[in-house]
Write a structure and sequence with these properties.
Elements (H helix, E strand, L loop, with lengths): L2 H21 L6 H30 L2 H14 L6 H13 L3 H23 L9 H9 L6 H20 L3 H27 L7 H26 L13 H38 L12
Length: 290
Amino acid sequence: MSPAWSATQLRGETRDLLRDAVERLRGRDVALIAAGLTFYAGIAVVPLLLVALALTALVASPDAVRELGGRLGDLLPAQLGAPEAVRTLVDAGVTMGLLEFVLALVPLSFYGEGLRRALLRFTAEDDTLTGWRGRLLAMPLVAAFPVLSYPLLMAAGVMAGMQDRGSDVGSFFVGYYSVLAVLTVPLGWGYGVIAGGRRLHWGALVSGVLFTAACLSGFLQGFVVFLGLPLALGAPFGGLTAVGAVVAIILWLWLLHLVVIAGWLLTQSLDERLRRAAQPPGRPPVSGRP
């Protein structure tokens, strides 16, 4: 196989994969579906972070989590009060009582429902009890929160130290790849388990998760840059900066969920192509399209 032929084949496969993913959008308002998923995320995001911090404090210690959380806050631009917001969130998480922890699991589980509802819109699955299935399937991931959040907090400490030494590029790469690595676990669980349906080909699942995690990590780095821009976010809302900041966060969450849905569509398309290639000649193709 010559390199030129290999490059041509790669371009052709990529083009066909993208075309198939776009075909799956036919008849569906992806912007509205992403907005619905963003609504569920708005309910779940703060309880999720609080539970993750509480569990991490049990594995490490409250003081260690506070220190690393403070270092994380120092990495964020101060224009909109992000560092203080992070410190307040960390303090609330490490001081949660048992009853507060249990109650936080209820809104946290709503994201599993939203994710299942959104992703199943692009499949042929006839699901029942979608909300309850999504919530229950999201709960096992809670056990992995300390394994995911503590290394991320440690990476924030490393990044802060690198910035103190003037190594902004190194800090960027540490942040990008640490977030990418952490996102692979919830994305893999979301695509492979919460979304339901038939079992995905492992090659399609791994490729789709890594691609989506890389895109999401890049978007999150962009969000940090956005926080540092001298924008009058309250201008369209009568000078209410807090309202403008909340709307901006919702908009970024919506964009992130567009990426999650795009990654799901590409994963499905790759899964179908891999299954088709592995089928014996003469057998009718298997399709997961609605």
